[in-house]
């Protein structure tokens, strides 16, 4: 065990618990709990979005993928960033104007139907859970590598901490954990990138030139096609990346933490700058790891390449930088899982309990209690699942979350704001078709089935050849919503749509 | 801010139909559509051309500037595009906000009459 790394872990834990203590004193109402009373500024929320988004998959995963596969790893960086244009242009402002605590609020603002709210909440819980298990499994593996703790203890530590943040500090604590993590991550990434760039004499040309001989791939390292060989699979993945973000519940709930639509827009713009700069720097992380750690050492530490960034820090800056980057990676996981717990818990407590079960009649105190218990429940469930999922491929769970988000949530969000004829049946069929088709296609995909024992969960020939279902399931989600609308005898409420258009575009009458 | 929020919430009936029909609101929607629809088509196409070109051809593997190939330049262009479209939208949105203020003002006057 690395003593310095352990010390920095403790500092981060202490810091986040202090924040949680102060946040808990301010968390008295459901509005405090779910949205920090919508009191965040554009900058704060922008950083929190960035903190929520730059998950371990981004920081550790992309750096490793670029180090091992060159250009192909960079596809993730591009897709994750361009996705923010979809968020900025289509989703952020109407969502802020129509919703209160959850994504389901927005759809329920147009369709006054418990079923719609229920299905939307179901999607939120499904997506958050896949994403959370992925993060927890990653966290377990990472802490095991960094501190030498057993997988079970690692998952328990992260799980208990995330529960404490959310249950006691609600959205205020969660947001500040995300903000601090975003700043730490940017600082760490920046330092490593500068050192890497200095080693190449601050010359892009020299860096690219030397990379041609630095890896076993040779010249091919700099060209696309090392990792993604099937054209349809590449396009399918890119579609899910660019459209998934706008349907991710833990990102969507971040737009309720600001006071109005212009501030929501500003926070997306700030987030886009921070995230964009970070993803540009992933090139230095990846190239640096390939050149100064070496392919064999990266694979020896972790076959998927997830240790590339911490190993690079160690190679460049010794124990201190390694300890710092390891602690940042830990903070990264804490911040992201806290956001996920909050999004799943709000879907349970706000949508299922308060609106469906209690028909909006629960008192403020009962709602608060429900929200806190839901957070405990979600945490316990995801910790248990993560303990069983230890051997699962993390990338598969994350790709599943993105594909479900793009296929199940996005069509309904878009049609709710833009399509006059869209009706309740369409909303329900759209969400269910997207959810089920994405799940089924992944279940029959090479992620789950492989003829090679040990390469996937089951041994056998996959029925569906693509690793990512996006290219089929996203259109199916849209088609499901359209067909559901057209076959339904129920006519769309035109007056309601007019009201929604006015509200979404101006914020008039917002609760 | 809080006061303003309250006044709309307390206003029992908002005539959404009238607002939707007003010239200022229709102008807002027209301005927004004129920007968002073409911009969305553009960035979506620009984004998808990269994976399509890299998976069905090798043209982007040719060197562009020294050892840096066209694929990397195209990839960096995606970043530049995202930031540029962000700035552009922020500028346009300031104008949208002004129109929204106007719509709100008219709604308030009309609603109380």
TrEMBL record, chain A:
Gene3D superfamilies: Sodium/glucose cotransporter. It is a multi-pass membrane protein. Keywords: Cell membrane, Ion transport, Membrane, Sodium, Symport, Transmembrane, Transmembrane helix, Transport. InterPro entries: Na/Glc_symporter_sf (IPR038377), Na/solute_symporter (IPR001734), Na/solute_symporter_CS (IPR018212), Sodium:Solute_Symporter (IPR050277). The chain crosses the membrane at residues 6-24, 45-68, 74-95, 116-139, 151-170, 182-200, 235-256, 268-293, 320-348, 369-389, 395-419, 426-446, 466-487. It is found in: Cell membrane. Belongs to the sodium:solute symporter (SSF) (TC 2.A.21) family. This is Cation acetate symporter. It comes from Geobacillus uzenensis. The lineage of its organism: Bacteria, Bacillati, Bacillota, Bacilli, Bacillales.
From TrEMBL, chain B:
Keywords: Membrane, Transmembrane, Transmembrane helix. Pfam families: DUF485. It comes from the Bacteria. InterPro entries: DUF485 (IPR007436). The chain crosses the membrane at residues 34-57, 69-89. This is DUF485 domain-containing protein.
């Amino acid at each position: 065990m690395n003593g310095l790394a352990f010390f920095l872990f403790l500092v981060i834990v202490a810091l986040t618990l202090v924040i949680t203590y102060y946040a808990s004193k301010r968390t008295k109402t459901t509005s405090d709990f779910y949205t920090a009373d919508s009191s965040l500024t554009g900058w704060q929320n922008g950083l929190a979005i960035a903190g929520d988004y730059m998950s371990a998959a981004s920081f550790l995963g992309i750096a490793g993928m670029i180090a091992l596969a060159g250009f192909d790893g960079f596809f993730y960086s591009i897709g994750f960033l361009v996705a923010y244009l979809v968020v900025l242009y289509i989703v952020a402002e109407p969502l802020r104007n129509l919703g209160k605590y959850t994504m389901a609020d927005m759809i329920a603002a147009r369709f006054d139907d418990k079923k719609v709210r229920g299905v939307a909440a179901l999607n939120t819980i499904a997506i958050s859970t896949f994403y959370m298990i992925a993060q927890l499994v990653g966290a377990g593996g990472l802490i095991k590598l960094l501190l030498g703790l057993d997988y079970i203890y690692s998952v328990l530590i992260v799980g208990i901490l995330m529960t404490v943040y959310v249950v006691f500090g609600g959205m205020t604590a969660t947001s500040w954990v995300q903000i601090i993590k975003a700043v730490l991550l940017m600082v760490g990434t920046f330092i490593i990138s500068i050192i890497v760039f200095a080693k190449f004499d601050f010359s892009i040309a020299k860096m690219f030139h030397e990379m041609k001989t630095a890896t076993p791939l040779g010249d091919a390292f700099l060209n696309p096609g090392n990792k993604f060989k099937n054209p349809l699979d590449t396009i399918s993945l890119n579609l899910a990346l660019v459209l998934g973000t706008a349907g991710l519940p833990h990102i969507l709930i971040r737009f309720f933490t600001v006071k109005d639509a212009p501030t929501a827009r500003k926070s997306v713009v700030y987030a886009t700058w921070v995230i964009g700069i970070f993803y540009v720097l992933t090139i230095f992380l990846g190239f640096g790891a390939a050149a100064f750690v070496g392919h064999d050492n990266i694979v020896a530490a972790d076959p998927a390449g997830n240790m590339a960034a911490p190993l690079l820090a160690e190679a460049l800056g010794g124990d201190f930088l390694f300890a710092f980057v390891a602690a940042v990676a830990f903070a990264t996981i804490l911040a992201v899982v806290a956001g996920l717990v909050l999004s799943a818990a709000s879907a349970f407590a706000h949508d299922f309990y308060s609106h469906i079960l209690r028909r909006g009649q629960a008192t403020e105190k009962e709602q608060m209690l429900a929200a806190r218990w839901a957070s405990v429940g979600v945490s316990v469930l995801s910790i248990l699942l993560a303990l069983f999922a230890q051997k699962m491929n993390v990338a598969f769970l994350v790709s599943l979350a993105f594909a479900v988000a793009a296929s199940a949530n996005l069509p309904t969000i878009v049609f709710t704001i833009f399509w006059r004829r869209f009706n309740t049946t369409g909303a329900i069929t759209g969400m269910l078709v997207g959810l089920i088709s994405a799940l089924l296609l992944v279940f029959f995909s090479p992620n789950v089935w492989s003829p090679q024992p040990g390469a996937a969960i089951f041994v056998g020939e996959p029925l569906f050849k693509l690793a990512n279902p996006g290219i089929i399931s996203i259109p199916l989600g849209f088609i499901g919503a359209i067909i559901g609308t057209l076959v339904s005898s129920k006519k769309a409420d035109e007056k309601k749509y007019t009201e929604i258009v006015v509200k979404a575009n101006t914020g008039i009458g917002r609760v | 801010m809080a006061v303003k929020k309250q006044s709309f919430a307390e206003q029992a009936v908002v005539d959404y139909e009238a607002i939707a029909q007003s010239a200022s609101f229709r102008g807002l929607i027209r301005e927004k559509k004129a920007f968002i629809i073409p911009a969305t088509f553009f960035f979506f196409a620009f984004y998808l051309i990269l994976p399509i070109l890299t998976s069905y051809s090798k043209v982007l593997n040719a060197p562009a500037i020294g050892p840096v190939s066209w694929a990397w330049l195209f990839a960096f262009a995606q970043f530049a595009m995202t930031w540029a479209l962000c700035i552009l939208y922020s500028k346009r949105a300031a104008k949208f906000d002004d129109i929204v203020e106007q719509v709100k003002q008219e709604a308030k006057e009309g609603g109380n009459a």
